[in-house]
Write a structure and sequence with these properties.
Order of helices and strands: EHEHEEHEHEHHHH
Number of helices: 8
Largest sheet: 6 strands, parallel
Radius of gyration: 20 Å
Helix content: 40-55%
Structural class: alpha/beta
Strand content: 5-15%
Strand order of the largest sheet: 1-3-4-5-2-6
Distance between the termini: 45 Å
Shape: elongated
Amino acid sequence: MSHQLPLGFTFSDDVSFETFYVGSNSLLLKQLLASVHERSEPLIYMWGSRGVGKTHLLQAACQYVAKQAQSIAFVPLREHQRLSPEMFQGLEHLKLVCIDDVEAIKGHSAWEEALFHLYNRARETHLPILMSGKVAPAQLGLSLQDLVSRLGWGLVFHLQELNDEEKLGAIQQRAKFRGMVLSDDVGRYLLKRYSRETHALFQLLDQLDKASLTAQRKLTIPFVRRFVQRDSSRTGS
């Protein structure tokens, strides 16, 4: 098994296709599964706002293929300043390449050209590439127009943000995978009183899980309220 990851980077154990709450994104998930199973699409580009699950899906795909003892690469381009465009060399011979935050290399000609040439080589070896960005390819602001056109050749999906009921389902699913019971009342309380961003809710849920285990208490509204107040006083927020 071969992984190509940035130094010090590891995948989270709770990131998988099973832990992704699908919501209105069932077609995207179907295409991603087809890509990792059948290598059916040379390129899938997904875009959406922060916290909708782009990185989760890319890492889930990488971990799925890696568990089959296949070679993968995960490239978080938001960290491009400590990486090198040369890392794209030879990736076309792997089984899957996932590239996160494409907008981060806007205006960096060496990176744009390296990604362009990787895509061309990947078409010859039938390597599936999964990419993500905050906006659609035409809105990325990339200088290399040939790269913009290549990104539009594949399947492009707008990753839809969850509505409130779906966010409730997502945090309840997250709680279930962690062995917790999160009632509708407590879930709605979290949505009403705290961040509505799914990623932030997941982080709060992870903290509540540790606190409830330490205190040997169930997740109730009074327990959640006391925990958040105590945590806020410690951090000074």
